Amino acid sequence: MSTVVFASMDADTLGGIQRVVHTVAQGLAERGHEVHVVGLHRSGDPITYVTAPHYSHHVISPGPKRSPWARRRTAALLNSLEPGYVVMTSPGVVARMKDLLRLHQGIGQYHGSFAHARGCWHYAAVKAHYGTLDQAVFLSPDDAWQFSEHALLPNTWHIPNPLPDWPPETSPLDRPRVLAVGRLAGVKRFDRLISAFGRTGRSDWELHLVGDGPDAGRLMVHAVTEGVADRVRFRGRIPAGEMAAEYRAASLAALSSDHEGLPLVLAEAASHGLPAVAFDVSGGVRHLVRDGETGLLAPPGDVAALAAALSTLMADTRKRRRLGAAARGHARQFKLPNVVDRWEELFTHLRR
């Protein structure tokens, strides 16, 4: 068994990276690995992802500001552990920790897409630092290939994010409800989804938005402007333990983001037998949604195309069920044991 450290800037805030880290850490710990989850600074609003963790949890610093004291404390923690693997979950973490590894092999993980990285500082950081590590891990085969080709990384690998649970029940897909889940903030572009929903002209369907965030008020006004305020339900934040019922009550999942890595909400929807309609913004989205097989994709930002895809599946129950069954079958690869297998394959590869 191996020593495995997952390091994040903040390991306990509500977020996709944090959820994945705790889920994978528990999965590896349950197989006998010695696992440590490290937050380089404390969360201002911490939540609990695993109620009975089999791994150790560490917080280095009370705040995000770099300091020699925090650096020494991080180094001391790593040096106190048996040699193993340190998974650094973002470019910022890699920049802070890559020269502290000494006893350990370094794995740089990137939770975004290649397309998103190219549009911000992440691309330069990944190109500069990830190639010097023992392995660079991305979320999909397409993203790993893109970074290998364009950032000239010689050490790419791909491991998807895992589903924490596998539901025994699926949706009957007979309720006229579209479900979208995410923070009500700019990048998710729920304004575009509301517009697309309005363009379908289906007054018998509802759009349920699960999540909270700073754009809630603006989106409510937008729903009024689009003439669908009576059919768009703002549900707020729903506890993770209650989300299965939300998926079972829906017949379609929708994703309208400007960018995504590998959006776990689509895998969760698929595990409940829901087909998805999404903007084709990344290799991770294409890895989850096979156009015409498990759902329908629209060109990024194309509201008319998103509306057409929604209309197609709203009008055809038989097609929804065919795509939904295929989506559930496709989602099996994201079950936690399968993803933990991929991590163990990586560790075996690095030991050779």
Automatic annotation (TrEMBL):
Parts forming coiled coils: none
Keywords: Glycosyltransferase, Transferase
Pfam families found in the cross-reference section: Glyco_transf_4, Glycos_transf_1
Keyword Transferase part of the UniProt annotation: yes
Superkingdom classification of source: Bacteria
InterPro entries: Glyco_trans_1 (IPR001296), Glyco_trans_4-like_N (IPR028098)
Recorded GO MF terms: glycosyltransferase activity
Stretches assigned to the Glycosyl transferase family domain: 170-328
Domain Glycosyltransferase subfamily 4-like N-terminal: from-to ranges: 15-161
Annotated Gene3D superfamilies: Glycogen Phosphorylase B (3.40.50.2000)
SUPFAM superfamilies: UDP-Glycosyltransferase/glycogen phosphorylase
Name of protein: Glycosyl transferase family 1
Species of origin: Acrocarpospora pleiomorpha
